[in-house]
Amino acid sequence: MTEGEELLGVPSKGLTDGFEGYLSPSDEDYRAVLTSGLVVLDTNVLLNLYRYEVRTRVDLIRVLERLSPRLWIPHQAADEFWRNRDQTLTNRRQSTKDALDQLDKPTRAIDQAIANWARSVGLPSERQTEIRRLHTAAIAAVRDAISGSVEDDHLGRARDTNEDPVLKRLIPVLEGRVGSTLPPEDYANALQEADKRIANQTPPGYKDANKPDHRGAGDYLVWEQTLREAVLRRTDVLLVTGDVKEDWWRKFQNTTRGPRLELIQELRERAGTQLFMLQPQDLLRIAGRLLQVEVGPESVGEIAEIAKTAPRPVESATNRERIRPYLVTALIESLSESFTVLAGGSGSGSAWDVMVKRQGVVVAAVWIYDPIKPFNDLATGSVGSTGQSMTRELFGEHAGVRRPWVACVVDLASLLRGLSTDASPWSAGRGSAPGLSADAAVIFRPHADQLMDAGFDHIEVLSSVDSADAVNRDGFARIRVVVDLLKQRVETALDQIGGVPGSEG
User: How far apart are the C-alpha atoms of 286 and 308, rounded to whole Å?
Assistant: First the structure.
């Protein structure tokens, strides 16, 4: 065979063929994905806008505005943003309070040091007073600077979404650019896949394996929803994330070298396109330069510093956060377009996790009871009392009209775990219960009766929806029972009253 001749039927490849993941992207690569690809923002990119100084926040939002036609947010990331927004604002205010409180500690110590020194050198009292006055003035100036820097950026009233300067800029930028939830069956399969990846240490998400209640699914849900969008668009993806864990990034000597090769390969197999990843400070620097957006070098530095200390968003507090989206998507699919399905629960201002409305009137509602301390709840009777207050409030809003159909989905995973690990589980609560049964459903039965007495139309008890294995798939099937009953009830009721909600029953 002569030099350069190929073996018959075996084409030769270049040094980089099949190894593209090791290559550093060029300016042209970034320019192409920024102008014609899919730019995906992770939750932390949005939440950290509340942690930056005004200048940095404005610079990053200006870049996002320039990228608006290419931006896209996975539904999971949007959900995590809204569920963590209030806590992020609270942490911001708390950090200011903590800093001001910390200033008081050295103040007392310094006052004592001045007094001790003054006695040892025989300093006149007038001179001691003058030195203390200098110290007091310096501390007051620092306190004013800390308080003023927070007040100046107009986030003091951001709890009110109408007064939130971040939302005022973000909402127009992201209009029509947030993905949909996964269909119920796909959602269950995604939870199962997330658990498999954690067990096999397959990226992304396995670094969250130590989180309680299988809360490591969030990263995988973001990734799966991104993959699906890339398949639909058949375009390259730039994922912008402040998450620097090794289940997202390929690292060498603690330096990120690019996306994990497995992620690059998975996107190529699913969508036939290329994956790029940037941290927010790098997006600011690169997009600002390539797209001629003016950004300050101080902003790049601050974003990098904030990334080192910012807490990660909570993917899911409890199983309740898994049941709710499954229930919402199932109802949307099952009910006609004349019904509106609203997600409530944490951060929404409503204790009801799901509400179904027609023409603005609530026709059905579902509460998901997923206790963190089940034995305390049961021993103190808070399950029944909570149910009573919820139905009283809801039914009171519909006095004189047909009341909504209401159900409670009870997940007893925490109770089952408690029974298996706690020899005396009732000791944590007030009171006692003789003959504690190993059957969690039997234990909960009296409290289910209390809910029915409070006005609930249906109680559905689940064992768990921690994952989508054979046992927990039964949990999703039981949620489907609630969906079918709700659909039958509201549609039958509307037929009986001529299709007009709110009529006399």
Answer: 20
CA distances from residue 261 to 5, 18, 138, 196, 198 in whole angstroms, order as listed: 32, 11, 54, 19, 17
Average pLDDT of span 46-71: 91
Q: Which residue, chain included where needed, has tokens 């942490």?
A: 91
| Cβ count near 73 (within 10 Å) | 25
Is residue 103 predicted with pLDDT exceeding 70? no
Give the Cβ contact number of residue 497 at 10 Å.
Answer: 15
> Tens digit of pLDDT for each residue in 135-163?
777 777 776 766 665 555 567 677 788 88
Which tens digits make up the pLDDT trace of 389-439? 888 888 876 655 678 999 988 877 666 655 554 444 433 332 333 333 345
Task: Copy the structure tokens of residue 311.
Answer: 């807490």
Across the range 30-56, mean pLDDT stands at 92
CA separation, residue 69 to residues 176, 265, 269, 291, 469 (Å): 10, 26, 26, 13, 40
How many angstroms separate the Cα of 107 from the Cα of each of 121, 139, 310? 21, 8, 28
Distant-in-sequence, close-in-space partners of 208: CB < 8 Å, separation ≥ 6: 198, 215, 216, 218, 219, 315
Distance, CA of 261 to CA of 242 (rounded, Å) = 19
**Through-space distance between the first and last CA atoms of the chain, rounded to whole angstroms:** 91
Alpha-carbon span 203 to 245, nearest angstrom: 10
Residue whose structure tokens are 């103040």: 107
CA distances to 329, 370, 450, 464 from 479, in Å: 11, 14, 21, 11
Cβ contact 170:62 at 8 Å: no
pLDDT value of residue 498 = 46
- The Cα–Cα gap between 474 and 481 comes to 11
Instruction: State if pTM tops 0.85.
Output: no
The answer to whether residues 208 and 216 touch, using CB atoms and an 8 Å cutoff, is yes
Answer left, alpha or beta for residue 424, where phi above 0 means left and psi between -120 and 50 means alpha. beta
Say whether pLDDT at 229 is over 90: yes
User: HEC profile for 399-433?
Assistant: CCCCCCEEEEEEECHHHHHHHHHCCCHHHHCCCCC
